[in-house]
Amino acid sequence: MLVGMSDTGRGSLIIDNRRWGIHPRARKALRFSGAFAQCAEASVRFSLAPASGGPLCENSRHLMEVPSFARWMDRFLSQLRISTRVHGHPIEKNALFVCNHISWLDTLVLSLQKPFYFVAKSEVGTWPMVGRISQRMKTLYIDRHRPFSVYRKLPILETLLRQGHSPLVFPEGTTTDMMQPLPFYPMMFEAAVRAQALVQPIALTYTGISGEWLRQAAYIEGDSVFDTLSRILDEPSVSAQLMYLPPISARGSDRRTLARKSHAAISEALLRLNG
Q1: Is 29:17 a contact under the CB 8 Å cutoff?
Q2: Residue ranges per structural domain of the chain
Q3: Cα(100)–Cα(87) distance, integer angstroms
Q4: pLDDT tens readout for residues 30-48
C-alpha cells in the first residue's frame, strides 16, 4: 500500500502520505489529485445550483451559511495543508471590512471566519465553477475597465451596511507579492462614510513551516490559479495568519482619511506578523 487515506465524511478523502517514503513529485501529484477531486465535488454539489440573485436578494442564503459548503471549504484548505491562525476577532456590528490582497486563497481563508460579502472584479463571475460559487456567496462585481463602476456600486455597499451585513473589500484593487500593501484606493470607504459605519482593517499574510513569510502563496499578474496551486503544493505546510485590528469610526471622517488609517494599521500589523 502506497498511500493512506482518511475519510472526512460525505465521500471526501484527504490524502495522508506524510508517513510513507514517497518521491516528492509523486507526493505533489497525489496532493494535486486530491485538491482536484475536492474542486470536482464543489462543482457538482454547489456551483450547479441557481445563483443567489445578487448581494441584496433576501430570498437565498449566503453560501457560507450552508453547513455542507462550509465543511467542504474547510476540507479543501486541509487538502492543501493550509491552516489558519487568527489574532483578534471580527466585530459583531455591521462594518466595512478591508484587507490587503495576496492571492485567490484570501477569499477562502476569510470566508471561514464570517459570511463576508466580497467585492471582486467582474471577470470572477464568469469563471467556470468559481463564478457560480462566488455568485452564491453574494459577491458584488466591479468592472475594472469602467472608471465609474466602483462609484455606481456604492449605494449597494451602503445598503448592505445599513442592513447589518459584512461587506469586505480589497482596497489595493489587485494582488501583490510584497510584504507590505500597495496604496489603498479610497472610493470604497465612501460607503462607510455614508452609512456612518465602522471600518475594521484585517491584516493577512502567509507563512511557511518555520514561520517565514511565504511568497509562494501570491497570485500576481501573469500567474494562473494552477501556478499558485502548484507552488502551494510544494510546501510541507502553509499558515494563513489573520489579524483583526481595532475598528475605525467613519463619523466625522472622510474616505481618504479612512483609507490612510486602514493602510497604516494593516502595514504595522504585517510588520509584526512577518517579523
Answers
A1: no
A2: 4-274
A3: 16
A4: 565 666 566 656 555 655 5
